[in-house]
Structure formats: C-alpha cells, structure tokens
Amino acid sequence: xxxxxxxxxxxxxxxxxxxxxxxxxxxxxxxxxxxxxxxxxxxxxxxxxxxxxxxxxxxxxxxxxxxxxxxxxxxxxxxxxxxxxxxxxxxxxxx
Amino acid sequence: xxxxxxxxxxxxxxxxxxxxxxxxxxxxxxxxxxxxxxxxxxxxxxxxxxxxxxxxxxxxxxxxxxxxxxxxxxxxxxxxxxxxxxxxxxxxxxxxxxxxxxxxxxxxxxxxxxxxxxxxxxxxxxxxxxxxxxxxxxxxxxxxxxxxxxxxxxxxxxxxxxxxxxxxxxxxxxxxxxxxxxxxxxxxxxxxxxxxxxxxxxxxxxxxxxxxxxxxxxxxxxxxxxxxxxxxxxxxxxxxxxxxxxxxxxxxxxxxxxxxxxxxxxxxxxxxxxxxxxxxxxxxxxxxxxxxxxxxxxxxxxxxxxxxxxxxxxxxxxxxxxxxxxxxxxxxxxxxxxxxxxxxxxxxxxxxxxxxxxxxxxxxxxxxxxxxxxxxxxxxxxxxxxxxxxxxxxxxxxxxxxxxxxxxxxxxxxxxxxxxxxxxxxxxxxxxxxxxxxxxxxxxxxxxxxxxxxxxxxxxxxxxxxxxxxxxxxxxxxxxxxxxxx
Amino acid sequence: xxxxxxxxxxxxxxxxxxxxxxxxxxxxxxxxxxxxxxxxxxxxxxxxxxxxxxxxxxxxxxxxxxxxxxxxxxxxxxxxxxxxxxxxxxxxxxxxxxxxxxxxxxxxxxxxxxxxxxxxxxxxxxxxxxxxxxxxxxxxxxxxxxxxxxxxxxxxxxxxxxxxxxxxxxxxxxxxxxxxxxxxxxxxxxxxxxxxxxxxxxxxxxxxxxxxxxxxxxxxxxxxxxxxxxxxxxxxxxxxxxxxxxxxxxxxxxxxxxxxxxxxxxxxxxxxxxxxxxxxxxxxxxxxxxxxxxxxxxxxxxxxxxxxxxxxxxxxxxxxxxxxxxxxxxxxxxxxxxxxxxxxxxxxxxxxxxxxxxxxxxxxxxxxxxxxxxxxxxxxxxxxxxxxxxxxxxxxxxxxxxxxxxxxxxxxxxxxxxxxxxxxxxxxxxxxxxxxxxxxxxxxxxxxxxxxxxxxxxxxxxxxxxxxxxxxxxxx
Lengths: 95, 486, 476
Fold this sequence. Notes:
The complex is a heterotrimer. Chain B is of the alpha/beta class. Chain B has 15 helices and eleven strands. Chain B has one domain (about 1-485): Amidase signature (AS) enzymes (Alpha-Beta Complex). In chain B, β10 and β11 (about 450-460) form a beta hairpin. The mean pLDDT of chain B is about 95. In chain C, the strands form four sheets. In chain C, strands 3-7-8-11-1-12-13-14-15 form a nine-stranded mixed sheet. In chain C, a hairpin with a 2-residue loop joins β7 and β8 (about 110-125). Chain C is elongated. Chains in contact: A-B, A-C, B-C. Chains A and B meet through α1, α2, β1 and β2 of A and α9, α10, α11, α12 and α13 of B. β1 (about 60-65) of chain A pairs parallel with β2 of chain C, so a sheet runs across the interface.
C-alpha cells in the first residue's frame, strides 16, 4: 500500500487538515507502517460474517415525542469564537 | 493517618462519623495538589472555590441527616474529557482550551447527587488518543514513582494523582486501555466497565462504540463504590442499556473458591517484559492458593485486536472530531479569511500531531475504495473477537492477563514511534472491542522498581464477580498498599 | 434529434412531530433564532442523540401509503461532510438499511395512469439555516432547524415530463398532508424536491449524464426548472457538447439553472453505521399499531363521500382540497346527519368567507358543533337561508353561538300567517304597478313583490308562507 503525496492530500482534504511539509513526510512514513499493519486483517476469512457496529445486539432505544425545555440562547452561544447576539458566525459560504 | 493516604471509603466513613469534616478533607487534597502538581502535572485545572462550596453543601446535607453514598463528602477528581458545567473541559487539547460546557455529564450529576466534592480536572492525552499522556497540549504528566517516566495514558493524570495522594479517587475513561494501563503503570486500581453500563452523555467522544467511563482508586473497593454511583442507564445515552446500578454487596467476602480463571499463555510469551510475566504468573498462583481454579489456555485472535481496534477507533474518532471547526466553540485560527481557512487553520493549529494522524487514518479506512477492506472488515473481526471471548467464558468466569507488555517507560521513549505505541495496547483493546468489563489492579514491581498491574476480564455485567476476585487478591496481598512517597 | 427526458425525484419532507429527531427541542417553524436548541442539536462535545420514535411511526405511515415494504430491521448511518449548517459535520441519515423500500405511486398525467416507482424512504435530520449578513459579509447560522426530522422519498427515474413530476408531487403532497406527517409548505421549506434530470436520444436505452437541481420553492418553479434543464441539456448535446454531472441551483427570477461552485461535486461522504444510535427492529405489533391508527387518505375519503354519503364527485373533490375542510365536513355532518347540506355550506358560503378574508383552511377556527347546529336550525325552519348566511358569518368571525345570536337579534323566521298577510296586503297596496305587471303575465314582478314583503318582514319571513299567501292574494 503506497502512501504517496496524492493520498496524503486527499486525506488532508477529507479531514480538513493542512500538514506542514515536515508533517507530511512524517505522515507518509507513519501511515505506511500503520496501514500495512491494519491490512493484517486480510489474513482472516470473514466471508458472510456480520459487521458489528456495537459490541452487543440491543435494539429499540428511543424516546417519546415530547418537547422539552431548550437551552438559553446565550448559554449555547457562549463558547462561540465569533458570534452576534442571535447567531453563530462563519465566513460566507460560496454558492 | 495522613488524609491524603486514606482510601475514599476510609475518608467517607470518617466523614460520616463526624471525625473528619468535608471542608477539611477538601482542603487536604487541594494542598496535596499544590505540593505535588508542579512536578507531576497531573491536573489541568483545579477549582478550589467550587470545591469548598461543594464541601460545604455535602456537609450540610450530612448534618441534616440525609442518607448519602459512602463516598459523600469525599473529594473526587475528574478526567478533563468529562463535561463539567461552566468549568473548563479541555480534553488536553488547544482546541478546547477555553471551552466551558453549559452542562454536566450524567456521571458528574450522579456524583453531585451522591455528595461527592469535585476538586479538579485531570491531565490526559489529547482527546484521549495516546498511551502516555505525552500528547497533552498542557504538557506531559509524570509518573509519581519516577518522574522521568510516563504515568501511562490516556488517563495518566488520573492514575498519577491517585498514586501520589493528590486525588482520593478519580473518574476517567477507557477506550482501548486508557484506565487500565495508567493504573498498571502507577500501581493503582481501576475498572473499565461493561459497555453500556455507564452513561457516556457528557463524555467528549473519542470512539463511540468503545468509550466507557470508569473509576480509578487506591483499591478495588474504592473503585466499586464509585462505579456504583456512576452506573445505571440514562435516557440521554441510547447505548446505556444496563437498567440498574451495579450491586457490589456480595463482592467483599474474599471468596474465590467457585471461580475458574483462564490464563492465556499466548499473552505471556513473546513481546512481554520478564518482570511483567513473572508478576502476572505469580498473581495466578496467588489466586490458586486462595482456592480458585486457574487453567492455562490459548486466547485466539490476539494479533488481530490491535489493527481492528485502531481501524474502528480512528474511523469513529475522525468523525467525532469533525465538529471542531472553530465556529461553534473551541479554537478559531487567527489567520482565517475564508470558510476554508477557518476549517483548515483552526483544525491544523488546534489539534496535535497524534490527533491529526488518527483523524486522517479514520478518513482513510472509511473512504470509498478502502471501506470494505478496512472498516467493514474490522467490524467483522470484532465479531470474531467477541466470539473468542464467549468461547473462553464457557469454561472460565474470568481471564487473568497482563495489562501492558512493559512497566512505565521513560518520557520521550516511544512518542516518535506511533506503531510501537499502538502495539502496547495489545492486551487491553480486545476488551473494548468486545464491550466487556475488566478490572486492573497492581500485582508487583518490575524493572527499575516500577509498578506492574494485571487485569481480570469478565463476561458482560459481571463486575460484581470481578470485583470479588480482585478484592480477594487485595485482601491477601499488599501491592495496592505500597505508596510512592510523594 | 428528438430527446427523451428522464427524471428522478428526491423529495424531502419535514415531519410534523412536536420535537426534533434526536432531542426534545421544538420543531416549530419560525422561532427566534437559536432558541430551539440544546447541546445535542448544536453538536456540542459530549452530546448524544436519542431517537424520537414518532419519526419512525410517521415514516412507516408514509411508506405504507406509498406501497412500500417496511424494513423490519433498520438503522442509521453517518454522512460526513463539512458545512457550517451541519454542527456535527455529519448528518445522521440512512444509507445501508432504509426504513421503507420498493414502493410505487400511480399518477394521472396526459390522460393516462402511470406508475412511478419509489426506490426508498429513509429518515434523516435536517440541517440549520445560513443567512447572509451583507454588512459583515459573512454567514450567520441559526440552528433552530437543525435536527428537525426529515423523510427523504427517492423515486425511480420513471418520470418523462414536467407534468408527470407535478402530478406526482401534488399527489404526494395530498397523501402526506392527509397522513398528518408533514404540513407540506414548500414556501416554508417543509417540503423540498431535488430533481435529477438527464436527456437521451428518443429510443436510446442508455441513460445520459444527469444533473441535480435544487432550490425550487414551488411546484410552478419545479415545472419551469424541468423544462428549462431538459432544454439546456438537449441544446448542449446537439451543439456537440457534453453534459457535466453537477449540482445546479435553480434561479426562479432568471428562469434558469446555474452550476453551483462547490469544490468537489463528487463528495466522499465516508458513510458508516452510526454507533451512538441502536438499530430499530419493527415487529408485527408495531406495524399493526400503525396500520390501525392510519389516517384516511384523501382518495379514500372522496370514495366514501360519494359512495356512502351521497355527495357528488365534484363536491367531494372540493371538500378534500384541504384536510381541515374534510375534517370539518366529517365532524359537522356526523352531528347534524345531513352531509349534503353540510357540503353545500362548506363549499359555498364558508369557502367564500375564507377567500374574502384571505384565510387559509389550516387557520380556520370554527366550532363543528355550532356549525352543525346552524345547519339544523335552517333545516328545521327556525331561520331561513338568508339569515343563515348572516349567522354563519357571525360564527366565522366571532365564534358566536348561533342560537344565542338568533335569539338576541330576533332572527327567527316569521311564520305567523296573520302577520305575513298584513305585510302582503301592505306590499300589494303600495305596488299597484307590479300587481298589474304580474296579472299581465310578468313573472318577475312576483319576485319583486316577494322582495318587498321580505324587506317589510326584515328578511325573516318564511319564504314558503310568503309565497303561498302572495299567490293566493294575487289570484283573487
């Protein structure tokens, strides 16, 4: 499995991360080893086996359709780095 | 006895008997923190005023005759990835350095109801990703037994503080060994509970299907008392499925004669330090001498647990950490002009390298073209691992195993070799994959006089049995009573 | 070259639950920004989703009405992408095991019935809203809508014309409205449609490259968008060009679609099963409960009104143009036991009042018992029709009790023969010309005289008695 610049850039993009040149080089080395190691699972025959998203098979945990008290707006906005009194704020999105 | 040497239950009893005041206890621990933390860096933040206020409240409730938990009035310390209302919850990261949640985690609410007195937030690997607490933005925590060594991770601050008497007991989290391994490295006890027995609401997510909150304490009884408070289903966490809290009333009889303990020989062969092997083997003998039946067996799937774990953990973590974008909370890059800049800048500057690595690995294993061979495969392997445990539990009540292949290593020794770090998780991750409980307790000392721990892994919801075994061990050994002299 | 247009639709319908899909915040439209929010729907660290079971109930209702198979085992998946209106940077949706599949809906278009296949229905959460702030030139984010439950109804690519698309949407809208699962207000965004459209030379078995169009705010806009895009693609191909697979934004003002400038049009969403939510197992009991409590569809109501209640097809269609009207019709006719009169009143006078006052059927607030009473009062002759109209208006505007009003204003019909005779005599005496006209054969004069008499009786005369006495007097 070749971890090349193209793949690193693709992963950076998917993850919304920018690595420095140094970090990129290091990432190529590290990820190569790790991904190779992960590929060890290919040794196992798992044909037809269920894929477990949870460690146990429980179903049907839900709540009733009832309105509960929402949080005070100021509390929800309190940690926002950039905001107005009413809204969160982000640089404009390009359509 | 010095207050900081007391176990939580001893302290709780003295408080109940009015031989010790809550304020006095809190002050003693806060002083212990002051005198040790400059060196240990076990805490990220301490809330002195809030602690004293909680202590007063607990005292008032006790004085009013309210029947509270055996840990009422006892100071508790909380790993910094568990939300505490209006108190910084940083997850050891620059990304959340100034984040103050508007709510308490369910476990924090339960502790408050039980009369606990939170004193501070504990240091940890950034976003719980690490095995040494060296990835913390706030600097590494140190092992109090030898401050040139790591305390383990990701709950290194918790284990170090408990070992040094700078915390009476702690609430931490375990995703791939993050409670058990630091306990082993620092000579303290801890429990990683069955998945679904403790609410994750308010635990900042690392890997959703693997994370569990659990206690760290000076002995297993303290841990059990804490776990009793924490456990039980919560309507705010769909995966918390255990209706009632644990009942440990039958767990301190010292009786193990009905127990069959499996000892996986393949865990004790290569790659493990001789001291660790010796300590674990000796622990097995101790159980035998106490009347348990100990039998060697081979635990299959061992070499596949770590890759399966990292695939699943990184996939879930990458997704869980996507919300950190500099817009709703957390760090926002100062260099940001466009939306893209805000995302890239905030995330690249706010996260450390290990977190970035795991996020990218997560993107990789989930991306089109690789999903089947990596992520989907890992989910299937998870089933095989669970089956392997189920098989073993047909013959045994629990499995005795090492926690880590080594005792605590030196700071800086492994941090540049991520794969080596990951391999250190070899004994712990399979437990999280299968959602099973495990207790970790000290069982000896190894190289350079550093503590060594062992774990007992059980069937789901068998914590009362595991605690009984661990307590019987602690009743007839004194590893857990050794102090590091900080 | 003649082209065939191939269209598939993805309709998003906001479900009319009281609370959001994963938390208890209100779903009410139009709240003050960021006041229907909590840590869960704003994606705060440590928050976790808990599924609102009514969302599944509503999704299954829709699925059953659209002839889908209901998945007995269904689960959620995460769709990962970055956008400011998505606080967790993933949308909880369903990719691998949607709740309903393989359904169909028959539509009437171009004089024939056509079956449109429904590929699947899945549940997902809505995102927040972005508002452009022109002063700061930034995007302001309101998370009120974040977490409102949606069902996405994905059709097969079975449409061949804009008319078919609209016929489907209208029928779908009626079904969802009558099921009570969505209020289908396109202008409020509770119903949205994305159009997947491609063209191919007529007769060709292969599909052309398709585009996806968004941002149509009405059925009319959708109709225009389909026609425009089909034309644009055909022209492009005829000129030797290639259709680019992309997402396009419909601009109704410009009557054209424009490619959206997103960096990657083919996104890797890295779908994986949502670990924070457990799967749903829908057993026979659950399904039975939903089937038992299924509201009646408009089509079935119309059939029932015509077949069992003696209502004309036209009237049945009128009554089912809006659910509040059909509800009112059913409630009122059940009380007064006179469906025909009830229908007449609703379709005639009541609809006129609605139009005149610009009131929407869903805002109609009229007491069924009182309305039924009014009908009975006319039926049993207590008041005449004209008075009935007045009382209705009073009831509509002010909710006034009909009996009370009639009594207070003395509107009961006058039936006293002597009293009426006196009025008739007076009218005859005062209108000699009209009497002559009538006697010389002008029937219209009769009506005029009736009018005069009624005026004298303040409109309360019993028309039958007035007519009888007048005729008698005139034939003397």
